[in-house]
Amino acid sequence: MKKISIQNIADIDNAARQLLEEIGERRVVALSGKMGAGKTTLTSAMMRVLGMDDEASSPTFAIVNEYHSSKTGQTVYHFDFYRLESPAEALEIGIEDYWESGSLCIMEWTENIEAILPDDTLTVEIRELDDHSREITVCD
What we know:
Shape: globular
Number of strands: 7
Strand content: 25-35%
Structural class: alpha/beta
Mean pLDDT: 94
Order of helices and strands: EHEHEEHHEEE
Radius of gyration: 14 Å
Low-confidence stretches: none
């Protein structure tokens, strides 16, 4: 288990670099945390660090956003399962195809699909502390 601190928004890109190092070769990452904890903000920072062409935005209504890097050819998928009511809905959108694509899949609100997550999913918890800083816990 590794902890990464974010004292203020200026620290976010450094925290994203550290998190990407922890992710390594894994392809499926589950971000958990309360509403407003910073899941999408952290994903945006990760996309900047990875050199994606587009800035990340919340995929709450689209369920999945796809980002590309014209420099590296890399694709990243960003999911938000907040509106899903069952794992069956994730299966209906073809979630397993995304997981098997070899591309990085960053997912928010995986509590709604926990029963079908791959065994090698890296779980990352984001907590807002009393002083409004954030603590990221990376769980293997």
